[in-house]
Here is the input.
Amino acid sequence: MVKSFLSLVSLALFLGSCATGGRTERAEFRTFIERSDYQGALNYLETNEFYQEPKVLLLKLLEKGSVLFRNQKYAESILAFDAAKAMVKELYTTSLSKKAETILSNDNADIYYGEAYEHSLVYFYLSLNHVLVAQSFPEGSSEKVQSLSRARAELLAWDSMLKSIQSDRLGRSVFKNDLLAKVFGGMVHELIGTRDDKQVAINLYKNAKEVLLKNGNAYKTFNKKSSNFKKDFEKLPTLKKDDLEKNYIEQTAYQENLQKFLDEKIKSLEKIKKEDKGQLVILVQEGPIPLKVAEKQYYGLTSALQNPDSSDTSKAIAKVGHMALTMFALNKLNLLPPPSNWSPAGAYLGVNVASFAADSANISFELPVIKSSEVDSTLYLQLNEKEEFLLPLVSPLGDIAEEAVAENSAGRYIKIGARLASKHLVAILSAYGTYKLMAKDKGPDFLATNLAVLEYAALARGIAASEKADTRQWSTLPQNIFVYSLSLKDGEYHPHLKIKTKSGEQNLDLGKVVIDKKNTVILNFCH
Here is the structure.
């Protein structure tokens, strides 16, 4: 049994060295974006060995689409995101439960499926790209009309995609609706400007208020009581609105500002009299999104000791005894319980993953998490020294990613922990056999202990290599997306973007803007 296990571990070490999920490569790729070296980033995607692997084709397409978008090559960006959308549809229909699994299973060796929020943003960038392409054509031209029609078609496809994931995620606070789809969608329908489209825009802004209440309050950027909101999410639909708002919602300044903006949009569109003014729309993508990293988790061996996954292991445990093996793991191999300040994956979501034992031996392994981040930016659109407008934050992607990845990791905790516990149990039995053999020869206890520890450490390294945390992510996304629009009289403007943070203030020139009541000007800015 031990020889067989050793051969598996040797193979795992080899596979593990090849299956670390391209962590180094993604870090290198991200440096090109930080320097705004978009051509260098594209070259890296096309030449780096990691990004040529078929299993990360979706990730490559997402990154490529983002780089082209940042470089204002909107038509080329559409091609990349169209290919990504086709892959998303194909992968979404694949049941993860039907994937083949082995003792050497490794998420990094599997296809990159992407997170639900990443799937959603594919439609956002497709629609936005078509809007920006439309802006390059004269007002009333067939090309402009066609591009705007395509932007609207992507909104409809986006809504259909969101409805499909909502049915799969009922009763869970994790991402299943996109506030950005409602707000940006409303703006696109406003831009098209027919009577029917304006009514659709009104409905979308009203829907946005509902999504903000039911889903947006799960994010700390919008709600100071977000932890309680997520913890009791299943019972919230049964509460009266007054009780919900009193006990589970404390709006942040970001939510208050967004609520005010949505109310103003609804009020202005419901006016019967048409204003003889042009429109200025600004989208600011502030980034980058926080990194997905590996975080240590702990899992108790009690269950594996009591319910071994093979008859050979069961017989070996019976010969030694549960208690003796546990004490050996604790006292000789130092497999101590987790530290008192440890917080398991998904704990802040109210997900119970406490399968460790405070008084028993525990193993450790990796699961992916998004680095927790805090939004501290306040953005203003300045038209002149006297006029400035506060931009609402519509999509706190850092929050969204953090919650989505934490819930997925919590769901995998039991599955991975149980599988690895079985592997570690065989390694502990092997080390115990070595320890007893040395003790039988009446050698010094410290020598027997050291040999057992060295043997277990070697086997544990192989096990760890067989299941590295999958930290692949769409890394060129922004951390936050701010959106704003306002009506302006015809004329020439020189707007600035003022960004206030805890560390200081920036004032960025957005160039010259000419407003015409017959047209809408879209300013897209990545910062």
About this structure: Residues 2-292+372-403+472-526 form one domain.
